[in-house]
Amino acid sequence: MDKTRKIIARLLKGATTIIFTETVWRPNEQGGKDWYFTMASGGKGAEYRIDRISVPADDMENARNAFTSRVMAHVVGKPVVVIDCLSELDAARLCEQTWPCERSRRIRRNLEAELLA
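Predicted structure:
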């Protein structure tokens, strides 16, 4: 099993819902941009995980699409809901609705504050 497939299997263990964000960036220490997208996955209740997947700046959309395609191939035939959000804030709000807990509320509030700043 290749490395990416092992990572995906670990990320999806017990997942019944997967939420992807768009590709976004954050400033890095060198004054440049680190590009990434986020994947939230979990089962019922408040237990879920959020993973930031880094992508190369010169091929960010192809890298994201390749990764999400691998995830989709892994869940074919399984009872899993996959949602691809158009924004980080939409994804944070959906996570809060899907996995209502203090963590999901805090993430959504922090993202809203960051976007308003």
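Summary: The mean pLDDT is 87.
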